[in-house]
Design brief:
With about 300 residues, this protein is of the alpha/beta class. Helices cover about 20% and strands about 20% of the residues. It has one domain: L-arginine/glycine Amidinotransferase, Chain A. The strands form 5 sheets. Strands 1-9-8-7 form a 4-stranded mixed β-sheet. Bound molecules: arginine.
């Protein structure tokens, strides 16, 4: 089963038809030693250059790391590299994968902004040491692709949700579908405040998604509503200011989310999730929160 789907008419499978995948058990994190806002490549960074409190950022990051440890996930921590203030957002430089035989593979990103391109090599070193089979995109064919910022694995299923428009090119998803032999449901993103798919779609478990509806086209919304039996919607304030949809549910039960998403949190609890709130205030200044500050691995 493989192909790129962009309309409801093209959806010719049910979730139960898809290949089962194991839930990730490891979490890659990058220490925010050199984290800062030094340039503006998304609207959230505007006005925040030089404004990061490094001690607070380290503190926030340590709390998150501890929470992954407490959930029983194995955390792997890399040091951030000088000159790459956004490297802490380690969801963006790659898209890892485990095939049906348990082989670990990874597709390395082509970062959209010049300022972040060098991060890919630094993250690649980790995959080399971890014996992943490493794949690259042909830079003469593709302009950009920002890994798990835009390409989200469905929880425990061989299905990818792929966003494009600001940081990733639509054409990449043909290749990903081919290479990984999985269907990819693609979306055009409309609002530059929601420049990555992980800022407006959070896959909480097999059946539940948390979204900010206004970031999607009507067709995109129809696709989400068709596939997920339960769709929780975030308000403009919680999605835009608090990055509610940049939450993460590492195990399909516990949700890590930026502090203060009162409305979303209530809906999460009503749907049986355990909510854990964290301050990512320093990282919000750079346009990122919980989801993009980690990479889930198998
Ligand atoms: N400053 C970073 C950038 O604009 C933030 C990345 C956040 N990552 C994410 N997946 N939303 O690239």
């Amino acid at each position: 089963m493989k192909k790129v789907i962009s309309t409801v008419e093209e959806l010719d499978f049910e979730l139960s038809d898809l290949r089962e995948m194991p839930a990730p058990k490891k979490v890659l994190l990058v220490k925010p030693t050199h984290f800062a806002v030094e340039y503006v490549i998304n609207p959230h960074m505007q006005g925040n250059i030089g404004d990061v409190d490094k001690i607070a950022a380290m503190d926030e990051w340590e709390h998150l790391k501890k929470a992954y440890d407490e959930l029983g996930l194995e955390t792997k921590v890399l040091d951030g590299e000088r000159g790459y203030p956004d490297m802490v957002f380690c969801a963006n430089q790659s898209l890892p994968y485990i095939d049906e035989d348990g082989n670990k593979k990874v597709l390395m990103s082509i970062m959209h902004a010049q300022e972040r391109k060098g991060e890919v090599e630094a993250i690649q070193k980790f995959y080399e040491e971890s014996q992943y089979e490493i794949h690259h995109l042909d830079e003469s064919k593709f302009n950009d692709f920002e890994g798990m910022g835009d390409a989200l694995w469905h929880f425990k299923k061989g299905l990818i949700w792929g966003g494009y428009g600001f940081r990733s090119s639509k054409e990449v998803y043909e290749l990903i579908s081919e290479k990984y032999d999985v269907p990819v449901i693609t979306f055009e993103l409309l609002d530059d405040k929601f420049y990555h798919l992980d800022t407006c779609l959070c896959i909480l478990d097999e059946n539940t998604a948390l979204i900010y509806p206004k970031a999607f086209t009507d067709e995109g919304l129809a696709l989400i509503n068709k596939v997920f039996p339960t769709v929780i919607e975030a308000s403009k304030y919680e999605a835009e200011e608090l990055f509610a949809c940049n939450a993460t549910s590492p195990d399909g039960k516990n949700v890590f989310i930026q502090q203060g998403c009162t409305d979303v949190n209530q809906k999460l609890r009503e749907n049986g999730f355990n909510v854990h709130e964290f301050s990512t205030a320093e990282f919000l200044k750079s346009g990122g929160s919980v989801f993009c500050m980690k990479m889930m691995l198998w």
